[in-house]
């Protein structure tokens, strides 16, 4: 799964999402650099690596954390100039009020722990799939699709919602292997019907929508 995620993300198809996160940080960070920024559930580390490349002035002190030792090890090998940790979002190994920014991308958000770890005025950048994300693939692998889940939610206690950008674009997956990597790195592999998965495995190309919400929540 880690290797599939690495190949898929390094192909560049999700770069618009990474660029949206970089912009959210640049717009939302306040006070003096360097900014302590932790990616909670960083996977194999694509997004911290992208941020490191964008950060020409060295404004971000980046930490990537994942509960999977294999993911954190793959991340550490790819970019030794970022700190990588094995740990849980439910108990971040950082002092109270020490982070300027916390990223949670397609992962397991723990609002009360994020509240503890962030400085007052710090930001939590929450990235999640919108209702049309990978719609064309989901139409193939599920017999029926769940209803639209884009309902506005109240921000978690202790946070105010400062911004919500919707990133939409269409991407072209150009090989059976790339489609297999996408399936392997998402929970869809475990939830989809056997028949749907078989149909997806036969595809040699697929155009799919990317539909992602980048929310910025500021710690009060
Ligand atoms: C869907 S993947 C997203 C990875 C990465 N953010 C990305 O977008 O490429 C979710 C990640 O969260 C990690 N994870 C799951 N539960 C976690 C927890 N309690 N604490 C930290 N990481 C967790 C998984 O190991 C996995 O790498």
From TrEMBL:
Domain Methyltransferase: 38-121
InterPro entries assigned: Methyltransf_25, SAM-dependent_MTases_sf
Pfam families: Methyltransf_25
Gene3D superfamilies: Vaccinia Virus protein VP39
SUPFAM superfamilies given in the database record: S-adenosyl-L-methionine-dependent methyltransferases
The protein, known as: Methyltransferase domain-containing protein
Species this chain originates from: Alcaligenes pakistanensis
Lineage: Bacteria, Pseudomonadati, Pseudomonadota, Betaproteobacteria, Burkholderiales
């Amino acid at each position: 799964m880690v290797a599939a995620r690495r190949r898929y993300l390094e192909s560049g198809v999700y770069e618009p999402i990474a660029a949206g996160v970089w912009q959210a940080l640049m717009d939302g960070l306040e006070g003096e650099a360097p900014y302590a920024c932790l990616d909670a559930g960083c996977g194999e580390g694509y997004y911290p690596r992208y941020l490191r490349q964008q950060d020409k002035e060295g404004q971000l002190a980046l930490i990537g954390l994942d509960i999977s030792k294999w993911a954190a090890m793959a991340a550490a090998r790819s970019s030794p100039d970022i700190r990588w940790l094995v740990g849980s979002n439910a108990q971040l190994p950082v002092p109270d009020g020490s982070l300027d920014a916390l990223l949670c991308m397609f992962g397991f958000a723990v609002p009360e722990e994020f509240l503890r770890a962030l400085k007052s005025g710090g930001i939590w950048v929450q990235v999640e799939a919108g209702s049309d994300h990978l719609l064309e693939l989901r139409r193939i692998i599920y017999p029926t699709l769940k209803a639209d889940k884009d309902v506005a939610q109240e921000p978690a206690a202790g946070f105010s919602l400062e911004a919500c950008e919707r990133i939409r674009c269409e991407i072209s997956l150009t090989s059976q292997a790339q489609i297999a990597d996408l399936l392997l790195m998402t929970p869809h592999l475990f939830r989809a019907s056997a028949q749907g998965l078989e149909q997806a495995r036969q595809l040699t190309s697929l155009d799919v929508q990317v539909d992602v919400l980048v929310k910025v929540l500021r710690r009060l």
